[in-house]
Amino acid sequence: MIWPSVSTETIGQRIRKLRNERGLSLAKVAKEDFSRAFLNQVELGRAQPSTRVLRVIATRLGTQADYLLEGRLPGVDRELALETARVLLLHDHPRKALQALEGAEHGDWPVGTDARLCKAGALTMLGRDQEARTLLRAERKVIVAHQDKRRLEWWRSLWRGERKFSLAGGDIRKAANLHVKLADRAVRTGDTRMALEHYRAARVLLEV
Questions:
Q1: Superfamily for 11-70?
Q2: Spatial distance between the Cα atoms of 86 and 67, rounded to a whole number of angstroms
Q3: Which of 151, 125, 124 is nearest to 135 (CA)?
Q4: pLDDT tens sequence across 74-109
């Protein structure tokens, strides 16, 4: 599995790339909040924007400040890890699924919950039932609090020891479509390697 690396672009390079892709001039992005000259200096790496200015720039470029700072969105990374783990479980690779889930399981609802349920499934496949049940006991309260019937059904299947369950109701095409949506989001943020990973995952699902 190929994981996207942290971008080596600077904040300024990401800003200029998105601005050019969207056909926006320096003046269109700066407006009356800061000068065109300042934005140009930021793009050249000769000045650093404040947090407030960075958020303004991100909004006008149709992205998030996290992307301009890090080159990728944390939320998208967690979704990528989760979807990758699901594909690995479908192909009976629970150990690799656990590796893919590292970090994602600490997120909030709903991605964090899905990651923890996925981890419980991987642990069950490895015969580590006690660890799986410890996870499931804690997660049931969260699912019930959100009154999510679909995830509760997933939880019950895991509690019964069933090894595979799909939030898409077993519909592989729906699961593939989720990957395509994540790929489209990655394309919009300029992360082509992450987009490629999602498109590959969608292809794998459709070829099953």
A1: lambda repressor-like DNA-binding domains (1.10.260.40)
A2: 25
A3: 124
A4: 676 777 778 778 878 877 889 988 888 876 777 778
